[in-house]
Design brief:
- This protein is mostly beta strands.
- About 5% of the residues lie in helices and about 35% in strands.
- The chain is built from one helix and ten strands.
- The strands form two sheets. A seven-stranded mixed beta sheet has the order 6-7-8-9-4-3-10. It has a three-stranded antiparallel beta sheet with strand order 1-2-5, with no helix packed on it.
Length: about 140
């Protein structure tokens, strides 16, 4: 039986349902993620063909790099997705899922760019940039 998870933006205009396993949550401390969110990203991902999105006309996409774009709700401003241009998956912000989601933290990336106002105080693996399994934008 497939794992089915659902979630939405704050106002409910954009809703999604995923089918199948979700990757563990990656905490990204890069400058772009911090500037967009005001803190750091916490995201899982799923294959493009394993997610259904309702209200996609209310998603505004911002190309922060040539590698990927970031989607947010044009009505309430909720951060929604991080989508690589050439790869067959979408990252979904972990906080959007309805509870319980069964998501668990996997690792921290771009720890050298983290904000100076907080500490990383768990035992998850930490990476200066990324891991070979996690595609990221160059630069």
């Amino acid at each position: 039986m497939d794992d089915v998870h659902s979630g939405s933006c704050l106002c409910g205009t954009v809703r999604f349902t995923t089918r199948g396993p979700l990757r563990g949550v990656i905490y990204c401390h890069c400058t772009q993620c911090r500037k967009q969110s005001g803190h750091y990203y916490a995201a899982t991902n799923v294959a493009n063909d394993k997610v259904e999105i309702e209200g996609s006309q209310s998603i505004t996409w911002y190309a922060a790099s040539d590698f990927a774009r970031r989607g947010f709700c044009s009505r309430c401003g909720s951060l929604l997705f991080w989508k690589p241009n050439e790869l067959p998956y979408v990252s979904i912000m972990a906080g959007l899922f309805d509870s319980p989601s069964s998501l668990q933290g996997e690792c921290h990336i771009f720890v050298g760019q983290k904000g100076g106002y907080y500490e990383i105080d768990d035992d998850l693996p930490r990476h200066e940039r990324s891991t070979p399994d996690i595609a990221v934008a160059e630069g």
